[in-house]
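Folding Problem: From Residues to Backbone Shape
Fields: amino acid sequence; protein backbone structure tokens
RECORD BEGINS BELOW THIS LINE
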Amino acid sequence: MSQKQTPRDFLKLIIGRPVSVKLNSGADYRGVLISLDGYMNVVLEQTEEYVDGQLKNKYGDAFIRGNNAHKNGED
């Protein structure tokens, strides 16, 4: 029987890979997942911000508080 994975377990497996983080505001941040902590705060590199599907900004690094994230996933 396989062990049940938590969302945090999944995110730990994809560190170093491209991800998308959708915020409660509707904005979407895409970048390379560098780290996360117990509060589900994430750090991204090569980050791009999309609003309504349109690229709005590019950032080198971005810190996103876990309570602002609606969902996280691999790109």
In short: The domain at 15-64 is CATH 2.30.30.100 (SH3 type barrels.). The CA atoms of residues 40 and 67 lie 8 Å apart.
